[in-house]
Specification:
The protein has 167 residues and is mostly beta strands. The protein folds into two domains: 11-43, no CATH class; 73-162, Elongation Factor Tu (Ef-tu), domain 3 (Beta Barrel), CATH 2.40.30.20. 2% of the residues lie in helices and 25% in strands. The chain is built from one helix and 13 strands, in the order E-E-E-E-E-E-E-E-H-E-E-E-E-E. It has a five-stranded antiparallel beta sheet with strand order 10-11-7-6-12, with no helix packed on it. Strands 5-13-8-9 form a four-stranded antiparallel beta sheet, with no helix packed on it. The longest helix has 4 residues, at 118-121. The protein is rod-shaped and about 125 Å long.
Length: 167
């Protein structure tokens, strides 16, 4: 047996309004107040905020930023131009090359032209350059000289890059 009465004919006083209501229609609020169901107000969610865990401070398998290795730049078709006949100076046109004087540049896949052999242009050690402007620089080949002079050449698939490329 239950030790409390059902309260079917009993009345209760609302803690909110002070009015009498049937006992079996009364509800207890979150703050302990006994109120009629028409007066009931649920606890506002902001009164019990959710637990938040701390933000993670590290990444799993993180890797430090890396420095990109230098790669050769594709030159436009026939980017090399010889100086006057009998000289060994060559001017290279490479748009926005970003190089400075005394940089060492190695050329790849250039073909022979105007008396300058491909072996001499594509020399493994590269050449020390002298910058003329943002789009051109010059270098001097070792053994060959121009036969005609002021001639463009080098081919369509030539590259200019650093003397040492890290693979």
């Amino acid at each position: 047996m239950s030790k409390y009465s059902t309260g079917t004919k009993s009345k209760a006083i609302s803690d909110r309004s002070g009015m009498a209501f049937p006992y079996n229609e009364m509800l207890k609020e979150w703050n302990g107040a006994l109120v009629h169901r028409s007066e009931f107000e649920a606890k506002h969610p902001q009164l019990e905020p959710r637990q938040h865990t701390a933000d993670a401070q590290a990444l799993k398998d993180a890797r430090p930023d890396r420095t990109e290795t230098a790669v050769p730049n594709l030159l436009k078709t026939n980017s090399f131009k010889t100086g006057t006949a009998g000289t060994s100076a060559i001017t290279v046109t490479e748009t926005n090359h970003g190089r400075t004087s005394n940089d060492t540049v190695k050329f790849y896949n250039a073909i022979s032209f105007d008396g300058i052999t491909l072996t001499n242009i594509n020399r493994a050690a590269g050449y020390t350059i002298t910058v003329v402007n943002t789009d051109t620089y010059t270098f001097t080949v070792v053994t060959d000289t121009a036969t005609t002079g002021n001639t463009n050449g080098g081919g369509a698939r030539s590259y200019a890059g650093p003397a040492t490329i890290i693979a």
